[in-house]
Predict the structure of XPA C-terminal domain-containing protein.
Amino acid sequence: MSSSNTRRNTSNATAGPSSVRDVPSTSRNAHEGSSYQTRGTKRKAPPTSSEAPLPRDKSLGNYIEFDLSKLRNSKGGFLVEDEDGPGGSAAKTVEELKKERERQMQRLEQEQDPGIILDSSKQPRCHVCNSLEVDDQFRRIFGILVCKTCTKADPDKFSLLTKTEVKEDYLLTDSELRDPELLPHLLRPNPHKATYSNMMLFLRCQVESYAFGPNRWGSPEELDAE
């Protein structure tokens, strides 16, 4: 009896208080202890007062927070080319930007507003219906006094043709189409790509008047013979 008590006291004296704390009771506690120590070595310092996010104001109700510095202009949802990507404004050369500005200036010259005429007797009128609502674009570009109602009512006469259509249907040359005194044309941005040349639109009645005239083919039959 005394020998067993002596061995128990000896074992208790050998395993001091520090040894009892270091040895976990189960394997699960041992795993948690090691992971806790590992996580403790990688723990980041808490954010300072200047870096910490602002507290959410509950009085404003439900709302979504955005980082305005990371927002990107989506151009109203339209499909547009990336300005920073290939072909964007960031990749354009000085010469390309110069040509683009020249095309814009050409279109702006055609879109200048006319002067106001107060005397009704001197105001231009549509030569078809005698209306005062003359299409100013037709008057300035093509020199024809006609209202929009009449242009829509007679598309065979007042419709607009592209340069490609005029060349293929009436067999006219580039030099003829680029002469504004011979064939006036309306400039529009190229629908395929903004860096291309302006799109040229011609008035059908003026194209047919020149193509079927004595200085070109002479008649529709002569054109068909070609």
User: Anything to note?
Assistant: The mean pLDDT is 73. The longest strand covers residues 199-203. The longest helix spans residues 94-110. The two ends are 133 Å apart (CA to CA).
